Amino acid sequence: MIRFNVFSEPADRRRNPNFGEVRQFSFKLSGISKFGEVHSDRLALVAILCTLPFCSEELKVSWPVSQRFREATKVISRIKVIFSEGSIEPLERQNSGRHALSFSGGADSTAALAVMPNSTELVFMLRSKSRARTLYDSHAALESCRQLRNLGYTVHIVESDFEYLRSPIGFPTDLAVASPTILLADSRKFESVAFGTILESAFGTSGSRYRNYVDSSHYRLWSTLFQSVALGYSLPVAGVSEVGSAILCRDHPIGRFHQSCIRGKWEEPCNKCWKCFRKNTLMAALEGSDMPNSSIDSIRKSKEVRRNLIEKKPIRHEGVLTYSLQRISGGGEIIQSLRDLVRVGAIETDWMEYWYPPSSGLIDEDYEQTSVGLLKKYLGEMVKSNIDDLHSWHNETSDDRETRLSRFIRLI
């Protein structure tokens, strides 16, 4: 086990009144996996990943780090990171040929695994049980891990309670989920850490407009910090839409070992959450089916689904919903109103089926060629017209959209 102790200052508690003066979070291994001796720079990176949002002015790390890591943290602009006196030797990248994937058991991380080397090791972060009330159920993800282990993959399961630092429960930063992988990197000699980040998240099309991810503050921050601890920051499916990741999981042999719903049991998704609504609708579109009854029922009965459709502007991953509703029939007046809301017929969505070639630079160079070959095999490349449609993506609130939204709200 590795345990971190966090002591907050008055300014921190004003920023996060529920945080308290002293908190702890830990990481515990199961099975034959071992942390071994973890380099100080990597311990510090985990500390930053898990506590950065709770810091008001400064983050004081009570151990020395390398000068390289100290310099790298200057990319953090909101706060100042302070380390204990002294300096240690920086890490150099291993030449092991061994790469890790921060694995969730869902479609996107399974799609990433499908285009990575067969020697990739999976690291699953298991949320510790608590008295805190939560709908999360690890059953399906653990079963996915078990089946992939039976196929011959090396799978590490690390239990942690760092999600309870935040209120509501969740990751303090989106990449905090990689903390277990970082802590295992010394003993396993990992060269890089991969994530199942897809195009909608990387290039902004889940929101209001396209962005070039490599120019973003998110990329500058985390790629700099990961590289400073000798770990490549790799996004094998950053050029793949949620539509493409569903196609990969449908067509690749390991695709059947995933389940996106984190509330239901293995092969028994809840069919009530926002993720189930989106995924079920998309799979119906890919199969050429009618609008699933479960999706129609969710709009009527699920507060979460209704909230996402009504309150989110734009709707998260709205383009994927547009793609799906454009290709399925049925659903009645409510679904037709939803089609109007998400601009079915008014925007192009074919590009979502293909791989975006400029994203190849986000794949670790050690296996970039392998991944690109598999992405081309299973999805094919976007042509210029597809790329133009992607680059011109925009989805902003307007009077016309508000009128269509009001019509939809009246119907439900």
Biggest pleated sheet: 7 strands, mixed
By DSSP (H or I, 4+ residues per run), the number of helices equals 17
**Rg estimate, integer Å:** 22 Å
Q: How much is the average pLDDT?
A: 96
Distance between the termini: 50 Å
Q: Indicate the percent of residues in helices.
A: 25-40%
Query: Unreliable segments (pLDDT under 50, ≥5 consecutive)?
Result: none
Read across the widest sheet, the strand sequence of neighbours is 1-2-7-6-5-8-9
What percentage of the residues does DSSP assign to strands (E)?
5-15%
Give me the secondary-structure category: alpha/beta
What general form does the structure show? globular
**N-to-C order of helices and strands:** EHEHEHEEHEHEHEHHEHHHHHHHHH
Q: Can you describe what's shown?
A:
The structure is a single chain. 40% of the residues lie in helices and 11% in strands. By secondary structure, it is of the alpha/beta class. The chain has a domain at 270-350 and 393-411. The strands form 2 sheets. It has a 7-stranded mixed sheet with strand order 1-2-7-6-5-8-9, sandwiched between helices.
Would you kindly provide a brief summary of this structure?
This protein is an alpha/beta fold and 412 residues long. The protein has helices at 10-15, 40-51, 67-72, 107-114, 139-150, 179-188, 199-202, 217-228, 242-251, 274-287, 293-301, 303-311, 318-327, 332-341, 368-378, 384-391, 399-411, and strands spanning 2-7, 22-29, 58-61, 80-83, 99-103, 121-127, 155-160, 192-194, 232-234.
